[in-house]
Amino acid sequence: MTMTAHTRENTSMSDAQDKAATLIEALPWIQRFAVPPW
Q1: What is the pTM of this model?
Q2: Distance, first Cα to last Cα, the chain
Q3: What is the spatial distance between Cα 30 and Cα 19, in angstroms, rounded to a whole number?
Q4: What is the pLDDT of residues 1-38, one digit of tens each?
């Protein structure tokens, strides 16, 4: 039971880290396309 809960916590943490890393990598592209070229 403890192992399952611990694994679940680790999975949530790594999911959050993956989302954060993806967002950080996407930020320059979002800014590039969000800012008007003029």
Answers
A1: 0.45
A2: 58
A3: 15
A4: 455 555 556 677 788 889 889 888 888 887 888 776 66
